[in-house]
Amino acid sequence: MNRELRREFQFFHEWSGGIVGEHAVGALALARAYLKLQAMIDRDQARVRWVQDEYFDLEGFTDDALTERKTRENLQSGLWEVRGCIVEVRCPKCKQWEQRASLWGIVSAFDQQDNYPKVVEGELASEAKLDTQELCTD
Ligand SMILES: [Zn+2]
Question: Is 133 a member of any domain?
């Protein structure tokens, strides 16, 4: 394991959830996928877009009344926001972006100390098909 992978593994091991016992395996997969995505971003082959989730519905977000109240308060005060995250890959031929994975209704602070957005990016990177195949036929 090189230094870069070790660093990302430690991040995902600390911050991502996952099944106990499989947690290290999951964190390593997330770290690898995250680094692959970063390398593609560096080569302008992929991008991550964070956008406001305007369709978020707090109804059914949680069963816990206390969590719901706290979430509502933090959203109203602007302390938290709701965003969607989209991972896109660029077609090498026509340069169009194609969506490969997305997650919506992400409630978080999105500030400098917030580790959750990076965990989401790692999860989406591992879920997305990260290749550079041509998407168009013409
Ligand atoms: Zn194309």
Answer: no
Residue 34 lies in a domain: yes
Q: Say how many domains are in the chain.
A: 1
Quick one: what percent of the chain has pLDDT higher than 90? 72
28 within a domain of the structure (yes/no):
yes
Range of the domain at 79: 3-127
Question: In angstroms, what is the span from residue 93 Cα to ligand 1's centroid?
Answer: 5
Higher-scoring residue by pLDDT: 118, 59 = 118
Q: pLDDT of 73-112, one tens digit each?
A: 999 999 999 999 999 999 988 999 999 999 999 999 999 9
**CA gap 126, 87 in Å, rounded:** 11
Residue 43 DSSP SS3? coil
The runs of H, that is alpha helices, within 89-137 are 116-127
Residue 132, domain member (yes or no)? no
- Rounded CA-CA distance 62/117 in Å is 20
The protein residues having their C-beta less than 5 angstroms from ligand 1 (an ion) are 91, 93-94, 135-136
